[in-house]
Amino acid sequence: MVRKDHLWDGGPAFYFDAAAFPPTTDSFALGWFAHPKRGEAVCDLGCGVGLLGALLLARESSLHLVNVEQNEAALALAARTFAENSWAAAFRAGDLRDGAVLPAAGSMDYVVCNPPYFRSGSGKSAGSKMRQDAREETQCTLDDVCAAAARILRWGGRFALVYRPERLTDLLCALRAHALEPKRLRFVAPEPDAAPSLVLAEARRGGKPGVQLEPPLVIGTPEWNAVYFR
Fold first, then answer.
1. Is residue 186, in this structure, part of any structural domain at all?
2. Cβ atoms within 10 Å, residue 151
3. How far apart are CA 212 and CA 182, in angstroms?
4. Pairing label, strands 212-213, 217-218
5. Contacts of 166 (CB under 8 A, 6+ apart)
6. Nearest partner of 163 among 137, 142, 191, 189, judged by Cα
7. Would 138 be classed as within a structural domain?
8. How many whole angstroms from its chain centre is CA 120?
9. Which domain, by its residues, includes 141?
10. Is residue 27 a part of any domain in this protein?
11. Which pairing describes strands 13-17 and 2-6: parallel, antiparallel, or unpaired?
12. What distance in Å separates the CA atoms of residue 102 and residue 212, rounded to the nearest whole number?
């Protein structure tokens, strides 16, 4: 069922399918953590219904956004969101593993992605194929995502994504394997003394070694309220 919501009361609207593509904490956290600069070209790999792009444009409307998504129903909702808010954006339908679908090599300043977290078959699958594809590496792997980001980023461009802490080693190894040097890491935790539930990472294409570990982002704090525009 398609629903309409707003990023804040009276703010930009966004559309989503409550059964297949509900809005998640992951996207809101990444939309706050990522910091593309004014006027930069940004690509959202596997954009789904376009929530992450909406979060970025709500904070910096001058971005030149390209959305890549293989699910046509999700991409249609993304286009609806951007049209309603009068945001200019490009849409590319297809598999991010296909170079012909992606923006030109080296053309992007910044890339974002909320990738599938779990290896295919590693646990109980989601109820629908669409949700399974969003959560599990059935259609693309973490390595595929990093390869796509590296292909389209200019030298020195940045890549921000959200992932699960238990796969942090996989994440860092995949980034470095594609010349995406991890530069910022921030964990998200439900409470100050709790183990983190998410990790936010930013890497630089061709960057020098050296990573900044930022203070944990704790749910329910005043800083967390800013994630949700409160």
1. yes
2. 19
3. 9
4. unpaired
5. none
6. 142
7. yes
8. 20
9. 95-227
10. no
11. antiparallel
12. 30
Give the Cα separation of 90 and 225 in Å (integer). Answer: 30
How many angstroms separate the CA atoms of 23 and 17, rounded?
Answer: 9
Single-letter amino acid code for the residue at 213: L
In which residue are the tokens 């249609």 written? 76
What CATH number should be reported for the domain holding residue 212? 3.40.50.150
Written as tens digits, the pLDDT of the chain (230 aa) is: 899 999 999 999 999 998 888 899 999 999 999 999 999 999 999 999 999 999 999 999 999 999 999 999 999 999 999 999 999 999 999 999 999 999 999 999 999 999 998 766 555 555 555 555 556 666 789 999 999 999 999 999 999 999 999 999 999 999 999 999 999 999 999 999 999 999 999 999 999 999 999 999 999 999 999 999 99
Structural domain count of the chain: 1
* Chain CA centroid to CA 16, Å: 16
